[in-house]
Amino acid sequence: MKRITIRDVSVKAGVSTAAVSYVLNGREGKVSPETVLKVRRAAEELNYIPDFSARSLVNNKSKLIGVVIPQTEDRKQLLLQNPFYSELICGIEARLRQSGYHMILSGVEKGEGYLDTSMQRNLDGAIITGIYQESFYEDLKKVRMPIVLIDSYIYDSHFHVVGIDDELGGYMATKHFIDNGHTNIALVTGLIRKDGVVEKRFLGYKRALKEAGLFYHPDYVFEHSVTYEYGQEAAHLIAAKHPEITAVFATSDLMAMGVMRGLRDAGKQVPEHVSVIGFDDISVARMSTPPLTTIMQDTIARGITAADRLLTAIGNTDGELPAEPTIMPLTLVDRDTVRKLT
Amino acid sequence: MKRITIRDVSVKAGVSTAAVSYVLNGREGKVSPETVLKVRRAAEELNYIPDFSARSLVNNKSKLIGVVIPQTEDRKQLLLQNPFYSELICGIEARLRQSGYHMILSGVEKGEGYLDTSMQRNLDGAIITGIYQESFYEDLKKVRMPIVLIDSYIYDSHFHVVGIDDELGGYMATKHFIDNGHTNIALVTGLIRKDGVVEKRFLGYKRALKEAGLFYHPDYVFEHSVTYEYGQEAAHLIAAKHPEITAVFATSDLMAMGVMRGLRDAGKQVPEHVSVIGFDDISVARMSTPPLTTIMQDTIARGITAADRLLTAIGNTDGELPAEPTIMPLTLVDRDTVRKLT
DNA sequence: GCCTGTTAGTTAATCGATTAAACCATAATG
DNA sequence: CATTATGGTTTAATCGATTAACTAACAGGC
Question: Which intervals hold domain HTH lacI-type (chains A, B) (predicted)?
Answer without folding.
Answer: 4-59
